[in-house]
Design goal:
By secondary structure, this protein is α+β, with helices and mostly antiparallel strands. Helices cover about 35% and strands about 35% of the residues. It has a 7-stranded antiparallel beta sheet. Helix 1 crosses helix 3. It is elongated.
Length: about 180
């Protein structure tokens, strides 16, 4: 019986060590990106992206906790506009600030999470005219600390976050095409 327990214990130790070694080989950065074609000009879509007050109209993250505390500071929209949230539920605690805003073309945001884990990412929304439509691209990139690498062995960040981006882009499309 002791021999069987020792073998099982040894297998578990080797498996855990294998996961930890494999995680160390994962990339030091990540990027998630999704795009959607919206039958509207960039000028109609841009205000939804450039004004944090309008995020509640389309962002899937706003629906995680309808009771979360929201604070808007800085400029009303565009560069310098900031938005912080605090939630006891799934949304956690964080802050976003627009660091670059090119009318009807691009919005870049510093996205800082405090809880459930600390992370500092850059989000970009780009608008590219395509005939009578606009290609809207939502991307996020950031560093992958070691614990994030370990978690990525068991869950695919691109799939998890990508689904949220797809949901948000679909809601944005519905609004802009009205």
């Amino acid at each position: 019986m002791l021999k069987a327990i020792a073998i099982i214990g040894g297998v578990i130790v080797v498996a855990v060590a294998g996961v930890l070694v494999y995680a160390a080989t994962r990339p030091d950065t990540f990027q998630v990106q999704r795009s959607a074609s919206v039958k509207a000009p960039p000028e109609k879509i841009f205000p939804y992206l450039n004004d944090f007050h309008r995020f509640a109209e389309w962002s899937p993250y706003e629906k995680l906790d309808p009771g979360m505390k929201r604070t808007h500071t800085g400029a009303p929209s565009g560069k310098g506009a900031a938005y912080a949230w605090q939630s006891d539920a799934k949304a956690g605690i964080g802050r976003m600030e627009i660091i670059e805003s090119t009318p009807s073309s691009q919005v870049m945001i510093n996205l800082d999470f405090v809880k459930p884990f600390e992370a500092h990412n850059v989000v970009a929304f780009t608008l590219q005219p395509a005939g009578d439509a606009t290609t809207v691209t939502w991307s996020m990139r950031g560093r992958s600390p070691y614990m994030f690498k370990v978690m990525s062995v068991f869950m695919d960040t691109d799939t998890l976050v990508g689904k949220d981006f797809e949901t948000g882009l679909a809601a944005l499309k519905t609004l802009a095409e009205k």
